[in-house]
Amino acid sequence: MRLVIMGAAGRMGRMLVKAVSETPGCALAAAIEHPESIALGQDAGLLAGCGRLNVPITSDVEIALEGAHGIVDFTTPATSVRLARLAADAGIAHVIGTTGLSDEEIGAIREAGSRTAVVQSGNMSLGVNLLAGLVRKVAQTLGPEFDIEVLEMHHRAKVDAPSGTAFLLGEAAAQGRGVALSDAKTAARDGHTGARREGDIGFAVLRGGSVVGEHTVIFAGAGERIELSHRADDRALFARGALKAALWAKDRPPGFYSMADVLGLNDL
Ligand SMILES: NC(=O)C1=CN([C@@H]2O[C@H](COP(=O)(O)OP(=O)(O)OC[C@H]3O[C@@H](n4cnc5c(N)ncnc54)[C@H](OP(=O)(O)O)[C@@H]3O)[C@@H](O)[C@H]2O)C=CC1
Ligand SMILES: O=C(O)C1=N[C@H](C(=O)O)C[C@H](O)C1
């Protein structure tokens, strides 16, 4: 499968280039950055630390899409929306790991999913997607006397909060409870907030150092607490998941798919 890696000089982009070079059935069609990137012209493999691949980083996506079978995209929300349209026009698979997408941006990507196979997830790891299934089950089992809080920590360079994974887990909790996350979500507390509202799903965010990604969903009851956690040690995990999604999406009918679809976890 000939893949275009977007944001190829970024933290995830470099992981993806390396993962493509190591994954049977995948080949690097192009490595793309924005037109002002200082990485333009550099060899994508050398930048990724996996040896020369003779694929220079370029900025022309339209040319890159010619002859490609898929795009793997961990960039920015605006970039992912623009790419979704281009991927749909070209009829090729689009794997989106970008987080911090607004409802409108998700809507535009969903629309592209009516024309090509799109896999979008705030977290491409097996562990987090399994955890989401467990969270849904626990939330379904426990009553509203258990308060649900989602805690996440990431590296100091992360620009969106709460994380895409935190929302994925919060969504799973809301589904388990049979409520809309938009009605239950409390994303920040500061000052005299008053007592906690029953049924809220709270989010708390920590940022610092080089933390790859840590998430805990807490179910706090009277006199007892259940905590379900996931810790990512290495971004390569997300890159491998994204390539699995790309291979799965190749030749799939158009649709807006999740990692639960890719991993067969929908019945959890
Ligand atoms: N779903 C998942 O499993 C995971 C998702 N993520 C998400 O992926 C995204 C990227 O994360 P990360 O790699 O850490 O961030 P980085 O900032 O390191 O990488 C993003 C890259 O995209 C480049 N870029 C920006 N705009 C464009 C454009 N228009 N065209 C091409 N390239 C562009 C950036 O260039 P420049 O820096 O010069 O602006 C940068 O090199 C985030 O939203 C993050 O939350 C991260 C890990 C796992
Ligand atoms: O920005 C990151 O680094 C990560 N982003 C994703 C998120 O927002 O959940 C996934 C992972 O935790 C790393």
Automatic annotation (TrEMBL):
Recorded metabolic or biological pathway in which this protein acts = Amino-acid biosynthesis; L-lysine biosynthesis via DAP pathway; (S)-tetrahydrodipicolinate from L-aspartate: step 4/4
InterPro entries, per this entry?
DapB_C, DapB_N, DapB_N_CS, DHDPR_bac, NAD(P)-bd_dom_sf
Q: Which reaction does it catalyse?
A: (S)-2,3,4,5-tetrahydrodipicolinate + NAD(+) + H2O = (2S,4S)-4-hydroxy-2,3,4,5-tetrahydrodipicolinate + NADH + H(+); (S)-2,3,4,5-tetrahydrodipicolinate + NADP(+) + H2O = (2S,4S)-4-hydroxy-2,3,4,5-tetrahydrodipicolinate + NADPH + H(+)
What's one GO MF term for it? 4-hydroxy-tetrahydrodipicolinate reductase
Q: Where does NAD(+) bind?
A: 7-12, 33, 97-99, 121-124
Q: Which GO terms describe its biological process?
A: diaminopimelate biosynthetic process; lysine biosynthetic process via diaminopimelate
Self-association state and partner proteins as the record states: Homotetramer.
Chain's role: Catalyzes the conversion of 4-hydroxy-tetrahydrodipicolinate (HTPA) to tetrahydrodipicolinate.
HAMAP family recorded: DapB
Name it. 4-hydroxy-tetrahydrodipicolinate reductase
Gene for this chain:
dapB
